[in-house]
Every structure is written in C-alpha cells, then in structure tokens.
From TrEMBL:
GO molecular function: cobalt ion binding; cobalt ion transmembrane transporter activity; magnesium ion binding; magnesium ion transmembrane transporter activity
Keywords: Cell membrane, Membrane, Transmembrane, Transmembrane helix, Transport
Transmembrane segments: 266-284, 296-316
Gene3D superfamilies referenced in this protein's UniProt entry, alphabetically: CorA soluble domain-like (3.30.460.20), Magnesium transport protein CorA, transmembrane region (1.20.58.340)
Annotated family: Belongs to the CorA metal ion transporter (MIT) (TC 1.A.35) family.
Major localization listed first in the record, in broad terms: membrane
UniProt name for this protein: Magnesium transporter CorA
Membrane-related topology note: Multi-pass membrane protein
GO cellular-component term (any): plasma membrane
InterPro entries: CorA_cytoplasmic_dom, CorA_TM1_TM2, MgTranspt_CorA/ZnTranspt_ZntB
Length: 322
C-alpha cells in the first residue's frame, strides 16, 4: 500500500490520503508532503512526476533497479539512490530506495516491501518538534535509519569472525573444508556490502557540501553525525574483510601444517618398517652368508630388527614425528 503524509507548519495534519490529492497538497507553501511507493509501475510515478516536475531521467532510474548509490541534482529537485541492508539467514539482503527531494516534498520509491518503512515513521514521530524543518528532517530520519541498519548487519558478522578466530587458536577446527567455504562466503558478503554501503558516505557528503541549498543550518550537525556513522561503517567493513582474509589464510596454513604432520608420521613408520624389510631381505638371499642354516642367523636377524625398530621409534618420537 502506498503511504502518504502531510505536514503543515511542522505539524502532521493528514496521512494515508490518496496520491490523487497531490495537487492541493504541494500547492500549499507551508505544507510538506511525503509520498511512499513500493514496487511502483510506470504509471504510478506519472502523476507525481507531473506535479513535482521530476526529470524523466530520474524517473527512469527509479523504475529500473540496480542503480549505483548516488545523488544527482536536477532543476528543482534532487534524486538520491541508496540501499538498505538486512541480514537474512546469514546472507545480506539489500533493498534499493530511490528518493526525490524537492523544496516541500519527499518521495520514496522502494524496490521491495522488505524495507520496514514503519520504523522510519516511528523515528520521525519520536521527535515531532523537529518536523518544523520540513523535508530536510524527513530525509535525515530516513538516511539515519538506513545507516543504523548497517551496524545491525555488521555486528553479527563481527561476532562470527571473532568466533572463527577463537576456534582457530583453540585448535577446535575439524572441518577445514567447511571453514574455507564459510570464510569465502563471509568475504563475498562483505564485498557486496561494501559496494552497496560505502557510496552512501559520498551521498551524505554531497548533501552536506550543498549546505543551505538543501539542509537547514540547524540540521547540519545531524547530517554530520550520519556522515560519521557511514565512515565508521565503511572502516568496520574494511577491517572485517581484512580479518576474514587473514583467517582464511590461517586456515590454509593450518591445513598445510596438518598435512606436514601426517607426512612426517607416514614417513617415520615407513622408515621403521624398512628396517625389518631390509634385514629379512638380506637374510633371504639364495647365496651363502654368515649364519646361513644356523640358529645364530635367525637370532641375529631378529635382534637387529627389534633393536633397529626401537632405535628409530625413539628417535622419531623425540623429534615429535610420532
């Protein structure tokens, strides 16, 4: 369902009214209007585009998904593309949001209903006094909610990376192949997250650089706070990617160490087995040799096998090869 709100002089006076009433709403200089469209078709944006004078290229971008995060300036309005993130069954799920920002209207276009727009409304309603700043306040609340969602994604990933580190150094890893697969998936998710979330820093930075053209000076510290959060999210993402890479490399090294241990044991036992093989092979010659056909030959070969095997076993055990 499309959502709408009308603020007049900083006070919420109407909501969930038909989009067809847009003309009388945007025509009031003291009114601020918010329109929300979820998975719209081409005709859904037509009336809003006509009333607000939205550029056709911006409307086209809003109707086609997989746009890069950006802020574009057109005559009379801004067009912003950002991505909200959520963690679903260990995978990062993104919802694309296209925003049209005019002097007295904010239009949000969601690519999926998975984005919780009601949480944004609760954030707006939590401080109704700030609504007097109009569109700039509504835009800040939306961006702040999106960026806060990044931390809700990063925290579980950080916890999982720490668990992998602890497991690695505690020596409790048994399924190395499974851990390789998990670290690869983590790294891939973080790479996707970085590609979608990191440019939001430039989006917020672009709004700040425009200054009073877009943002009321009283709201500038709030936008700066959102910008700082985007920096923190990007730095956290980079550090997690580096940690996952180090853990993956450590798992590979650990696998190599285990292979070396196995090879040392196999080689040690092969060397021990070679002693009786050598001696019995020598005494099994079809030519006369010292002790041939006499008990001394049997006992001397048996003693050599036992002594040689024990000496090699002790030598390998001392070097921790067995």
């Amino acid at each position: 369902m499309d959502r709408t709100r009308l603020y007049r002089d900083g006070v919420l006076v109407k909501e969930n009214f038909p989009i067809d009433d847009i003309s009388e709403c945007v025509g009031d200089p003291g009114a601020v209007v918010w329109f929300d469209l979820c998975e719209p078709a081409g005709g859904d944006l037509a009336k809003i585009s006509e009333e607000l004078g939205l550029h056709e290229l911006a409307v086209e971008d809003a109707l086609h998904d997989r746009q890069r995060p950006k802020v574009d300036a057109y005559d009379g309005h801004l067009f912003i593309t950002v991505y909200a993130a959520g963690l679903v069954d260990g995978e990062i799920d993104f919802v694309e949001l296209s925003l049209f920002v005019t002097r007295n209207a904010l239009v949000t276009v969601r690519s999926s209903a998975d984005f919780d727009i009601d949480a944004v409304l609760r954030r707006w309603d939590a401080d109704p006094e700030m609504a007097r700043y109009g569109v700039a306040y509504l835009l800040h609340g939306l961006l702040d909610h999106i960026v806060d969602g990044y931390f809700e994604v990063l925290q579980p990933l950080d916890d999982r990376v720490e668990a992998l580190e602890d497991e690695l150094f505690d020596g409790g890893v048994t399924d190395l192949r499974g851990r390789h697969r998990e670290t690869f998936t983590l790294r891939k998710n973080l790479l996707r997250f970085r590609r979608m979330a990191l440019p939001v820093r430039e989006v917020v930075g672009g709004l700040i650089r425009r200054g009073a053209e877009v943002i009321d000076p009283a709201l500038m510290p709030y936008y700066q706070d959102v910008y700082d959060h985007t920096l923190r999210a990007s730095e956290w993402t980079d550090s997690l990617r580096e940690l996952v890479g180090n853990i993956r490399e450590a798992y590979q090294n650990q696998q190599g160490f285990k292979l070396n241990e196995i090879m040392k044991k196999v080689t040690s036992w092969a060397a021990i087995i070679a002693v009786p093989t050598l001696i019995t092979g020598f005494y099994g010659q079809n030519v006369p040799y010292p002790g041939s056909g006499e008990p001394i030959g049997f006992w001397s070969s048996t003693i050599l096998i036992i002594v040689g095997g024990v000496l090699l076993y002790r030598a390998f055990k001392k070097r921790d090869w067995l």
